[in-house]
Amino acid sequence: MNDPKVSIALCTYNGIKYLQKQLDSLIHQSYTNLEIIVVDDKSSDDTLNFLQGYANRDTRIKLHQNEGNLGLVRNFEKAINLCTGEYIALCDQDDIWDHEKIKLMVENIEDHTLIYHDSQLISEDEKNLVKASEWFNMYQGSNPLAFIFFNCVSGHACMFNRKLVPVLNEYAPLEKHFYHDWWIAFVAANCGTIKYLNLPLVKYRQHQNSVTDIQNVKEESLAIKNPPYNEINLSWLYKCHTFNGRYKKYIGRIINLLEHKTWLNSFTLMYLLILKAQYTYFIHRRKKGLSKINYLRKASFYKREF
After folding, report:
1. Do residues 47 and 135 make contact, with C-beta atoms less than 8 angstroms apart?
2. Rounded-to-integer distance, Cα 205 and Cα 124, Å
3. pTM attached to this predicted model
4. What are the structural domains of the chain?
5. Nearest Cα residue to 299 out of 276, 280, 274, 279
6. 159: β partners
7. Based on the number of CB atoms within 10 Å of its own CB, is 75 exposed (0-12), middle (13-18) or buried (19 or more)?
8. Beta-carbon-side half-sphere exposure of residue 265 (alpha carbons within 13 Å)
9. For residue 205, what are the β-bridge partners?
10. Angle ∠(116,4,94) on CA atoms, nearest 5
11. DSSP characters over 285-301
């Protein structure tokens, strides 16, 4: 009876193909003090009727439908604000959760602002691929600089304290070309600490319509490819710089150099600035020695925009 209430924020859009297995894995969680907030983004298939059938059978499911299509990011922002639990867990429509997922996250979050776990990537037909932790290193701690170039906290794998919601709302709305889970991780690291749970508690489906294409399934092969080195994104850094956190000045220095990259000294200063913080920059990347130096050199001389 003392278990805190957990809200699951599930966003759907034309998801009828995979939705049943996801919903079944939610309603059969071993942790029962749940509410499942489902916000459908004006689906044109039979998703809404399918959801209504589940809602009629389980009072924990609270179904909403948008009058118009908001897009994934805004839809999650709406779903988060409809949640009433002490903790909020984000949920995609096409994955499969381990039945112990919420229980283990509640037991381990302690006084951390956000907790997340490993994921087992699966193909469209549910064959195991790799774990997310095999793809990149997982960060835990309270340094938001770990999230200015890259993100390892997937929405489907995280749960955070609802105290984070007012802070997220202060900087909302988030532009649709940004990832909501990346922003949540950046804000959480500014406001407290992030904990990583080294257990694959979600089967994370990769298919042609996946928003996050970790294994390049939209290409002809599922072979792992090296991610592009030009990860410095000026638009994203502008957004990070709006947050009034303890590294605002540092992020501003990076932006200033990117905005004035016309002379060789600007490139050199950028290189030295990133080199000084290479531990943070490489927290997600498994590189050593000269490969680190070369990677930093490329990152300093290029940027990518959305």
Report:
1. no
2. 6
3. 0.87
4. 6-205 (3.90.550.10), 234-301 (no CATH)
5. 274
6. 89, 115
7. buried
8. 0
9. 122
10. 45
11. ----HHHHHHHHHHHHH
Q: Which residue has the tokens 């195991």?
A: 128
Closest CA to 156 of 123, 215, 204: 204
Higher-confidence residue: 29 or 146? 29
Please give the full DSSP string across 130-154, using - where no structure is assigned.
Answer: EEHHHHSPPP-BS-GGGGSS-----
Q: Which of 230, 231, 254 is nearest to 241 (CA)?
A: 254
Lowest-confidence segment of 63-72, 75-84, 222-231 by average pLDDT: 222-231
Do strands 96-97 and 128-131 pair parallel, antiparallel, or not at all (unpaired)? unpaired
Give residues with Cβ within 8 angstroms of 134, minimum separation 6: none
Question: What is the sign, positive or negative, of the torsion defined by CA atoms of 196, 143, 302, 208?
Answer: positive
Residue 196 CB coordination number (10 Å): 21
Task: State how far the Cα of 194 lies from the Cα of 112, in Å rounded to an integer.
Answer: 6
Euclidean distance between CA atoms 214 and 216, whole angstroms: 6
The tokens for 39 are 């916000």
Nearest-10 Cα torsion for 284, 288, 289, 293:
-30
DSSP 171-217: TPPPPTTS-HHHHHHHHHHHHS-EEEEEEEEEEEE--TT-SS-TT-T
pLDDT over 70 at 277, yes or no: no
Whole-angstrom distance, CA of residue 240 vs CA of residue 185: 11
Sequence letter at residue 37: I
Q: Quick one: pLDDT at residue 115?
A: 98
What would the pLDDT profile of 8-17 be if each residue is shown by its tens digit? Answer: 999 999 999 9
